């Protein structure tokens, strides 16, 4: 686990209706190695509900980053993290089909548009 020296992000309010496709906003460009589609990434992240702004998950709250192969994560992350460089912070707005699927899909977040702020700490 590495500490980026960053603090837990605040999610910027996105103007307009919930998007129907993935929205990628680079908050801070990284200067390190670039994440690729099949990479395992070490990230700190914050997830909030797009409509309510309510936090539903955060590695910051647990005090440690997570390390995952991108292929095991939601589609929005699989599409939105590649190209990001270590040290960067990126906001992803994931419509339901790129998050946990349509309403009634069995996950508590099914049918929700989700906003994530992700800090890329490492990639391999």
UniProtKB/TrEMBL annotation:
<keyword id="KW-0413">Isomerase</keyword>
<protein>
    <recommendedName>
        <fullName>Peptidyl-prolyl cis-trans isomerase</fullName>
        <ecNumber>5.2.1.8</ecNumber>
    </recommendedName>
</protein>
<dbReference type="GO" id="GO:0003755">
    <property type="term" value="F:peptidyl-prolyl cis-trans isomerase activity"/>
</dbReference>
<dbReference type="Pfam" id="PF00254">
    <property type="entry name" value="FKBP_C"/>
</dbReference>
<keyword id="KW-0697">Rotamase</keyword>
<feature type="domain" description="PPIase FKBP-type">
    <location>
        <begin position="38"/>
        <end position="124"/>
    </location>
</feature>
<dbReference type="InterPro" id="IPR001179">
    <property type="entry name" value="PPIase_FKBP_dom"/>
</dbReference>
<comment type="similarity">
    <text>Belongs to the FKBP-type PPIase family.</text>
</comment>
<dbReference type="InterPro" id="IPR046357">
    <property type="entry name" value="PPIase_dom_sf"/>
</dbReference>
């Amino acid at each position: 686990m590495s500490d980026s020296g960053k603090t837990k992000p605040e999610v910027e309010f996105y103007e307009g209706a919930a998007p129907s496709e993935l929205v990628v906003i680079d908050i801070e460009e990284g200067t390190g190695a670039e994440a690729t589609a099949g990479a395992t990434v070490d990230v700190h992240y914050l997830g909030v509900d797009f409509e309510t702004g309510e936090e539903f998950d955060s590695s910051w709250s647990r005090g440690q980053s997570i390390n995952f192969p991108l292929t095991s994560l939601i589609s929005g992350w699989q599409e939105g993290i590649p190209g990001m460089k270590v040290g960067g912070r990126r906001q992803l707005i994931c419509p339901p089909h790129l998050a946990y699927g349509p309403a009634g899909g069995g996950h508590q977040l099914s049918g929700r548009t989700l906003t994530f702020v992700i800090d890329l700490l490492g990639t391999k």
